[in-house]
Amino acid sequence: MDHGFGIIGTGDIAAVHARAIGTIANAHLAGVTDIVRDKARAFGEQFNCNVFDSASALVNSPEIETVCICTPSGTHLEPALLAIDAGRHCIIEKPLEVTVNRCRTIIEAAKKKNVLVAGIFPMRFLDINMEVRKAVESGRFGKMIMGDVYVKWFRSQTYYDQVKWRGDPEISGGGAVMNQAIHSVDLLRWMMGEVKEVSAFSAMLGHHDLDVEDTAVATLRFENGALGVIEASTAVFPGSYKRMEILGTGGSVITEEETIVKWEFSEESDLDNEIRLRFSGEETVGGGVTDPKAIKDTGHIRQISDMVEALETGRPLVIDAEEAAKAVEIIEAIYKSARTGMTVSL
Ligand SMILES: NC(=O)c1ccc[n+]([C@@H]2O[C@H](COP(=O)([O-])OP(=O)(O)OC[C@H]3O[C@@H](n4cnc5c(N)ncnc54)[C@H](O)[C@@H]3O)[C@@H](O)[C@H]2O)c1
């Protein structure tokens, strides 16, 4: 069966969705829409698909089974509800929405209508992160001790000035943590398990006239007792690759983007050398260190394929809305702690 996709919001990330859909044999991009008509028209020409006059026309098109929501973060809810009410499945860009309450509204609506909603976190679908997760699942780390992620990037003042919603907390939900580091926050939780407590600081250090943080540090206590750190910035030139450290009594793994910096376990397996060689660095792309558009399509291709497979087989999505909302919950706790100076329990 061929699966028809629609896209609401034809900005930067929409092109990744369109290209990804184009690579999937039994899927096609049926149509797009944007509140800026000319943008939608140009996008429709580029990707050779219908252009709808409104989100409501798009979601009611019989050709469209799944709607990709690619509008600014704090405007995911309304088009998502339109699509869900029309009985369409959704793939919603990160963050699912900018508050836990808005996420819950999406989750409840999807449950009522019995439709699938996926939250985009492409890093989970990358081979390197799936290998780390396999090592976690098979208990190779022993007792988990620390889990840390570092997203120290650079975004110019122009990056914020040109696209106003990025500096507006109502629409972006926040700055360096909600908008950039959220991928790593999700990955860290996937590896380490649920977060129990958070204590954080945030600041605006390298930009001006923004109401969101460009730098934040958070310390975490996970439910399994391990401790961890999240550091995020968009103010440090020239920026560094995203780094993750998963450390236990039985082993340590350190990655930077898709490169393994350290992969050592007290009990070496036959495959460890192969894994170290496979992720020795050739595959690493900028990953958005300084250029927000330097994103590989691989994760999106796999995540949209996951939706197609879930539709065909009836199996659950890898990242459903409930799962995607957990990162928003952690980030809300980070912001609350930074605001109040208190440790926040989740
Ligand atoms: N997964 C990733 O790596 C990644 C990367 C970048 C952005 N994103 C996420 O994707 C979303 C969009 O980001 P972007 O950088 O593409 O933003 P953008 O500003 O480039 O594009 C957003 C588009 O949505 C349109 N729009 C706004 N409100 C609309 C509405 N109600 N109906 C229809 N169209 C509407 C705008 O006109 C614009 O064309 C954000 O949630 C962002 O966090 C994800």
Describe the fold and architecture.
This protein has 346 residues and is an alpha/beta fold. It folds into 2 domains: 3-119, Rossmann fold (3-Layer(aba) Sandwich); 123-294 and 327-345, Dihydrodipicolinate Reductase, domain 2 (2-Layer Sandwich). It is built from 12 helices and 14 strands. Strand 4 (66-69), helix 4 (77-85) and strand 5 form a beta-alpha-beta unit. Helix 1 packs across helix 11 (298-313), helix 5 (100-113) runs antiparallel to helix 12 (321-340) and helix 9 packs across helix 12 (321-340). The model has no long low-confidence stretch (mean pLDDT 96). Bound molecules: nicotinamide-adenine-dinucleotide (NAD). The site of nicotinamide-adenine-dinucleotide (NAD) has 26 residues, from helix 1.
CATH topology group of the largest domain: Dihydrodipicolinate Reductase, domain 2
Question: Based on the structure given, which CATH architecture of the largest domain is correct?
Answer: 2-Layer Sandwich
Q: Whole-Å distance between the termini?
A: 42 Å
| The CATH homology group name of the largest domain | Dihydrodipicolinate Reductase, domain 2
Q: Could you give the order of the helices and strands?
A: EHEHEHEHEHEHEHHHEEEEEEHHHE
Mean pLDDT: 96
Radius of gyration: 20 Å
CATH class identity of the largest domain: Alpha Beta
Tell me the strand percentage band.
15-25%
Total strand count, please? Answer: 14
Give the structure's gist in a few sentences.
The protein has 12 helices and 14 strands. With 346 residues, the chain is α/β, with parallel strands linked by helices.
